[in-house]
Amino acid sequence: MAMRRRVMDLLRRESVFRITPNYLVGACSKAISQSTPATICEETNTSKSDMLVDSFGRQHTYLRISLTERCNLRCHYCMPSDGVDLTPNSSLLSSDEIIRVANLFVSSGVDKIRLTGGEPTIRKDIEDICSRLSNMEGLKSLGITTNGIVLARKLPKLREYGLNLLNISLDTLVPSKFEFMTRRKGHNKVLEAIDVAIDLGYNPVKVNCVIMRGINDDEICNFVELTKEKPINVRFIEFMPFDGNVWNVKKLVSYAEMFDIVTKRFEGVKRCQDHPSDTAKNFSIDGHRGTISFITSMTEHFCGGCNRLRLLADGNFKVCLFGPSEVSLRDPIRSGTDDDGLRDIIGAAVKRKKASHAGMFDIAKTANRPMIHIGG
Ligand SMILES: Nc1nc2c(ncn2[C@@H]2O[C@H](COP(=O)(O)OP(=O)(O)OP(=O)(O)O)[C@@H](O)[C@H]2O)c(=O)[nH]1
Ligand SMILES: C[S@@+](CC[C@H](N)C(=O)[O-])C[C@H]1O[C@@H](n2cnc3c(N)ncnc32)[C@H](O)[C@@H]1O
Ligand code: SF4
Ligand code: SF4
C-alpha cells in the first residue's frame, strides 16, 4: 500500500512538474530560484475567483498555513515569557483538513503557500503535507519559514517533496546572544542549516533577522558582511507588537535608521525592482554575492499590495496579520459544510478585510494573538 502510494505520488508529481521534475534537479548544481517558480510547476489555467478579491480590489494569491502552535525555541519577541495556551491536539487541523482547505484556495487562485508556525518542521507529518501540497495543480511555490534548528537533517527530503522557497530566521551571529534571545541553545544548528540550504541549491536562502534596539542592532553590519560571500538574502525586520511580546517603541529600530547604518558603512547599495506584493524592500550591494532587504511593517507599511491570507493551526482563517478578526473553518468542516459553504465563509471574510493595518500604536493596543499562534 505504502509502495503503491509512493509510485502514485511520483507519477502525479511528474505530471505536475512537467518542466523540471523536482527529483531530477541536481542536488548541488542547479539553483532553486525564487524568481523562477517554473522549476516547481508550469503555468496552469487555474481560474481566479472573486472569493479571493477584497473590497479594495486586492487579489489574494498567497496563503500562509500555520502547521503548529508549538516551537523548539522561545524567542522573546514572539513567545510570551509565561508561554501560550496550546490548543488541544484534537482541535488542531489534521493533514487531511489542511489539504482540503488548501485545495479550495489553490483552485480559487492561490499559487503560493508558505508553511509556518510555531515551528513547522517539528510537525511529524510535514513531509506528507509538503508532498500533497506540491502536487496541487495551480500551486507554483511552496515555502517554509523556519528557525532552522532541525532543518539540516530534514531539508533534503522536504526539497524532494516539493519545497522550493526557504526562509530561515536568525537574529544574531553571537552564540550566547542566541541563547538569550531564544531561551534555548542551537545557534550552530541554524548556521549549519543555512549552509545545507545553499548547498542544496536554494537561491536565495532568505535569512530573517528581527532587529531590536540594545539587543542586536549592533550586528546589522556583520549580517551585511555575511552577504559578501554567501548567496543569501538577509532581511532586517522591524520589531512588531503582538500579545505578550512586550513591544515598546523604544525597542523599534526603524527602516530609516537601519538603512542609514548600512549605507554609512557600505558603498554601492542599490534598490532592486521589488514585486508589488513583496513584504521586503530589496537592495543589492556592489561586490556582494547576496542581497539585503528591509521589512518595514511599522514605519512604511506595504498593505496596498497585500496578497496574503492566513490559515492558523486551529483552523481559524485570518485575513490580516494585525486584524483581530478570525473565522473558524474547522467548525464548519467538522459539522459537514460542503465546499461551496466554506467558499462563502472565506469570501465573506476576505470582503471584510481592511485597507491597511491601524498604525503601530493602535496595533500595540489592539488585542491580537501572540505571534507564535499566527505564524508571521
Ligand atoms: N505586516 C506584515 N508583515 C508580514 C506579512 N507577511 C509576513 N510578514 C512579516 O515578514 C517577516 C518575514 O516573514 P516570512 O515568513 O519570511 O514571509 P514573507 O516575507 O512573506 O516571505 P517571502 O515569501 O519570501 O516574501 C515576518 O516578520 C512576518 O511577520 C504581512 O502580510 N504583513
Ligand atoms: C512566528 S515565526 C514562525 C516560523 C519559525 N518558527 C521561525 O521562527 O522562522 C515567523 C517569522 O516571524 C518573525 N517574527 C516573530 N515575532 C516577530 C515580531 N514581534 N516582529 C517581527 N517579526 C517577528 C520571526 O522572526 C520569523 O521570521
Ligand atoms: S519566532 Fe519562530 S522560533 Fe522563535 S518562538 Fe516564534 S515560532 Fe518559535
Ligand atoms: S498588515 Fe494586514 S493588510 Fe497589511 S500587509 Fe500585513 S496582512 Fe496585509
Automatic annotation (TrEMBL):
Enzyme Commission code: 4.1.99.22, 4.6.1.17
Catalytic activity annotation: (8S)-3',8-cyclo-7,8-dihydroguanosine 5'-triphosphate = cyclic pyranopterin phosphate + diphosphate; GTP + AH2 + S-adenosyl-L-methionine = (8S)-3',8-cyclo-7,8-dihydroguanosine 5'-triphosphate + 5'-deoxyadenosine + L-methionine + A + H(+)
Molecular function GO terms recorded: 4 iron, 4 sulfur cluster binding; cyclic pyranopterin monophosphate synthase activity; GTP 3',8'-cyclase activity; GTP binding; metal ion binding
Annotated keywords: 4Fe-4S, GTP-binding, Iron, Iron-sulfur, Lyase, Metal-binding, Molybdenum cofactor biosynthesis, Nucleotide-binding, S-adenosyl-L-methionine
Keyword Nucleotide-binding part of the UniProt annotation: yes
Recorded metabolic or biological pathway in which this protein acts: Cofactor biosynthesis; molybdopterin biosynthesis
Record protein name field: Molybdenum cofactor biosynthesis protein 1
